[in-house]
Structure formats: C-alpha cells, structure tokens
Amino acid sequence: MDEVRNNWTLDEIKEIYDKPLLELVFEAATAHRKYHNPQEVQVSSLISVKTGGCPEDCAYCPQAARYHTDIKVHKLMKVEEVKARAALAKANGASRMCLGAAWREVRNNRDFDSVLDMVKAVSSLDMEVCCTLGMVSEDQAQKLADAGLYAYNHNIDTSEAFYEDIISTRAYDDRLRTIENVRRAGVTVCSGGIIGMGECTEDRMAMLLTLANMEAHPESVPINALVPVEGTPLAAQPRVAAHELIRMVATARLVMPASVVRLSAGREGMSLSEQALCFMAGANSIFAGDKLLTTPNPDFNDDREMFDLLGLVPGEAFKYDKKEADAGA
Ligand code: SAM
Ligand code: DTB
Ligand code: SF4
Is ligand 3 within 6 A of the CB of residue 166? Predict the structure, then answer.
C-alpha cells in the first residue's frame, strides 16, 4: 500500500472512498506522512488576468458569456499590475501564483505575448508560476515553458461520462490532449475537478481514476467544491457537505500519494474544523487571497490565523525541485 501506482481499478478506488470516514482519514494521513511534511501547506494565489466573455458553456462557470452573471468583465491586465499583485501575494506567504484567463484556447496573438511577459515577470519574483488559459498546443506550451512557466492548470473537472452534461462546447479528449501537450513541454501538470455539480459518487471516482492512471500523476490535484453562482445553470445546486469533500481529498491522497492535493474552491463558509480534517486527510495546498477568480475566498489574515491555530506553515517555492537536487547531491 501507499506506493505510487498507475494501474488502479474503479472498484479499488470506490472501496477506498467507501471506508468508514475516520478509518479513511487515518489511512490517508498515514500515506500523507510518507511523502510529505504534514505541517507544510503550499499557499497559491489566483489572479484572473482576463475575466468573463468566454465562448464556452461550462455549466458551473460565471465567466461564460452566455450566462448572465454579476461579474466584472475585463480585458487582459497589464503586466506591471500582475507583477505588483503577485508581489503582494508573496509578501502574504504565497509561493505560487496562478494566472487565469477566460479563454477557450490560447491563440498566437499579442495577448499571448503579454501572458508570456507576465510569466517572466512573476517568475522573476522567485515564485512558481502557473497558468490556466484553456487549451494549448505543444508549441504554445513550449513557449510558456521557455518564459519560465512552472505549472499549467487544466482540470478534467468530472468523469468522462458526466462531462457532456456539464460542457458541450468541447470534449473530454480535448482536455486530455492539452494535458499531454503540457507534459511534452516539460511543464508540471495541475489537474483535478469539481464536486457538487449533480454527479454521482461513481463519476467522482472515475475522475480520480483518470488522474491516478495517467502515466505520470499530475504534480498538483485541485479538488474544488462547486461555488454555485447566480445566473449559471448550476446556481441552484446545494453546497457540498464537508464530509464529502473530506472523503474526496482522502481518496485523492491515497491514490496519488506523492502529488500535492489542493483544497481549492469552496473553502469560504467551511469551518476551521472542517478544513482541519481536510488537511488531516492529506490536503497540502490551498488557494489564498480574498478572491478566487470571481468569487470570494477567505482572506490572507483568516488563513494566517488558521495556520497558527493548526500549527501549519506555508511551503517554500520550488520545493520539489529542491528535493530532487538534494537527492542528487
Ligand atoms: N478557461 C480555462 C479553462 O477552462 O481551463 C481556465 C479558467 S477556468 C475558470 C478554471 C477552472 O475553474 C475550471 O476548470 C473549474 O474547475 C474551475 N471553476 C470554474 N468555476 C467554478 C465554480 N463555480 N466552482 C468551482 N470551480 C470552478
Ligand atoms: C482550480 O482548480 N480552481 C481555481 C483554479 N484552479 C483556476 C478556480 C476556481 C474558480 C472558482 C469560481 C470563481 O471564482 O470564478
Ligand atoms: Fe470558459 Fe474556462 Fe469558464 Fe469554461 S471554465 S466557461 S472555458 S473560463
């Protein structure tokens, strides 16, 4: 048990998810300690560098142009402003900056050139830079890599079977292809999904199966709880119960023991003890800062207090590279 494997079966994963909750948390906590320092939690922060107006129809997303949501749409931000926001996040303990754009895919135009400049500017602050810009070709991923990109986020979001209930403007295979393009360019992969969209437990497990059976596991796995947004087709979905999020985090930890599991959207409104159980169950990353892309999130001060209370410390940037370097020394 606990070794990094990529030959999981759906039944094995279901069996893990269905264990008595505290047994599951204990097993996940045990695996977590074999691969990670349990006190360390990576702090990532998000900047929505281009908000809204997206041509896709993702049912959960407030940034799809076709839904009437109350977000502040804006064109691509200026490089200097992004750099200043990143520096502020760094001063608040963030070691990774994730730059998000409401694009279906990257196009080879001036906006992409500006994003490459943003990547250079933020990596010059000695932070890990992650981008989430929609679909990318291998060539575009290579340009991002050359600019210093550390990670690319591209969530598979749910199971292949449930995908078409949520998105009709692209296919599951498009997502997998972008992830392969990112891998080929030597950029680390950040990929996970959302729970609470009306999927069944089997869909959640099938999503974990797809991630856990990749040739190389994504280095980071964000687990989002749907933030229901007025105006989107999923606005009336009930909030996910904390115990479901805890199970999901614990199962992700057990099937991808070496990956960083991020407790992502949905922390706003969770109690400290609910979040503590997620950390116990193997979550070792959060998004921090008072806004995710368009929705509220606990602010840096709330999280500092939580870290102090729970005895957690923010992780350093490039820790995994350092580990490899140390092992080789
Ligand atoms: N447009 C790019 C894409 O789709 O890959 C990047 C930005 S998109 C907003 C990034 C991710 O945010 C989605 O894949 C989804 O997992 C997450 N997301 C969007 N809206 C959400 C919501 N209301 N609740 C939880 N997660 C959400
Ligand atoms: C991820 O898995 N979740 C983040 C980030 N990667 C890009 C985005 C969450 C968005 C939540 C809804 C919003 O704020 O618009
Ligand atoms: Fe566009 Fe990404 Fe939102 Fe889908 S999730 S509508 S692709 S911004």
Answer: no
